[in-house]
Write a structure and sequence with these properties.
The protein is an all-alpha fold. It has one domain. It contains two helices and no strands. The radius of gyration is 22 Å and the shape is elongated.
Length: 76
Amino acid sequence: MKALLVEVDDELAGRLERIAPARSRHRSEFIRAAILKALWEAEERATAEAYARHPDSADSAFDAAVWEHQGFPEKK
């Protein structure tokens, strides 16, 4: 793994300390999860913007009329 040094202001450091104290191993896990979440959200926004700029055409290979559900059987 690559180590990163990140400087934060006192207010943010205090908030982080309350959620993921430095003395626990959970802080690194918390920060990694936060970075992954932020990256995923950025990628989702980029995808949404791309679809907004270039929406799918009306001609789709998917035909909902012939789609067969392959999931769990319905409860009766």
